[in-house]
Specification:
It holds the Pfam family DNA_pol_A_exoN. This protein is α/β, with parallel strands linked by helices and 399 residues long. It has 19 helices and six strands. A six-stranded mixed β-sheet has the order 1-4-3-2-5-6, sandwiched between helices.
């Protein structure tokens, strides 16, 4: 399928258009299919630059929020917020929709539904092909959706993302119901909805959140990483540019690790834009300033909280925990095959490791274990399936 059934919808990008779209949606019937296109690889944050919305009796609407975000929220929130939504891979879209003040009342995630139903390939194109024998034209997901005007073929691609979404949700609900998993899915969908219900803006980050910074050990390295991050953040914010396009994390960390002494050494750091003399000069100044600063102001290495140690060391340092973890993983893997649900959907690996470690630090009763898993956001259906397997392994009777 190369084009939406009703043709490519016009792009709605004015306050008057948003209000007309809201009136049309209010007159439609049933759940509302929602999708977004973002530009996080190009722009500073992950905000939506296109909303695709479809409802029966209305068809597909394409809305451009940039420049009129408050107007879009004022028009659409009374209709969309609190309604029943259908989204494919909801966790990727819900944050930017929440930044627009748009929140579902209930949720059906067709991607997660497909996982729970036992499908191996769960992207939207694969699912529409498997369920409806319809091949959706793909290929524009990684484009710069912040550019204007948007090409017609991009808009066609975007509209196709919601063309069959309502039908797919109905089909997946029937499949899950026949498998006895619809209640499981409903719990999962509600967990995702509730997790995003209080989001109002992008989460704040610091230089210490940068991937790879935790591998730096010397205060001088950390001081350089901090200054590079602060400079990068200023440039990215001021120019609304993705930080990866200013200075990628790997490069930032490698510069801090190696502490180049000359511009030529900096230019040779793998991935650094060394061909641009202006970039080399600018970043070397930041690097030099950080190294020349008062060592008393350099940050100390953050020690990890005393909690669950890295499971990669368990086989060597904690053989009891390692043995229990291996046994628990094998039990869940067998269960995953039996119920045709991915192991990570039965219980998050990090939660399983935490429970195993806790069982070696204190004597747990089955009720203690259930409470521990619940406190770590395991849902009721997961407890029902996993507890009979994990309880004998993690709450052993001690003689």
């Amino acid at each position: 399928m190369d084009l939406p059934s009703g043709g490519v919808p016009p792009l709605i990008d004015t306050p008057a258009g948003f209000h007309a779209a809201a009136s049309a949606l209010a007159a439609g019937q049933g759940p509302i299919a929602v999708d977004t296109e973002r530009a996080s690889g190009f722009r500073y944050d992950d905000r939506a630059f296109l909303l695709q919305i479809r409802r029966r009796g209305v068809g597909t609407l394409l809305l451009d929020p940039e420049g009129h975000r408050d107007d879009l929220t004022a028009a659409l929130a009374p209709v969309l917020s609190g309604a029943d939504w259908v989204i494919h891979a909801a966790a990727s879209d819900l944050p930017c929709l929440a930044w627009l003040g748009l929140y579902p009342g209930s949720l059906f995630d067709t991607e997660l539904a497909s996982r729970l139903a036992g499908f191996d390939h769960v992207n939207l194109a694969a699912m529409t092909e498997q369920i409806f024998d319809v091949h959706l034209r793909k290929g524009h997901g990684a484009e710069d959706w912040s550019q204007r005007p948007l090409p017609e073929n991009w808009l066609a691609y975007a509209a196709l993302d919601v063309e069959l979404l309502l039908d797919l949700a109905e089909a997946m609900a029937e499949i899950l119901d026949a498998q006895g998993k619809l209640d499981w899915a409903t719990e999962e969908f509600e967990h995702i909805r509730a997790t995003h219900a209080d989001i109002t803006e992008p989460a704040s980050t610091t230089w210490q959140d940068t991937k790879g910074v935790s591998t730096l050990t010397r205060p001088e390295q950390l001081a350089v990483a901090r200054e590079l991050w602060l400079a990068r953040e200023t440039i990215a914010v001021d120019n609304d540019r993705a930080v990866s396009r200013v200075l990628p994390n790997k490069v930032l960390v490698e510069v801090a690790r190696t502490l180049p002494d000359t511009p030529a050494q900096l230019a040779r750091v793998r991935g650094f834009p060394g061909r641009r003399k202006s970039a080399t000069s600018f970043w070397f100044q930041i690097l030099t300033r950080a190294r020349a600063s008062d060592p008393a102001t350099w940050p100390a290495r953050q020690r990890p909280d005393r909690g669950t140690p890295s499971h990669q060391t368990w086989a060597r340092d904690y053989p009891e925990a390692h043995g229990r973890l291996v046994a628990a993983r094998e039990a869940l893997a067998d269960l995953a095959v039996e119920v045709s649900v991915p192991t990570e959907n039965l219980l998050r690996p990090a939660v399983l490791r935490a429970a195993v470690w806790e069982s070696t630090q204190t004597t747990l009763s089955p009720m203690d274990l259930a409470d521990f898993l619940s406190d770590h956001e395991a849902r009721a259906w997961q407890l029902e399936l996993a507890m009979p397997l994990l309880s004998p392994l993690l709450t052993p009777v001690r003689g």
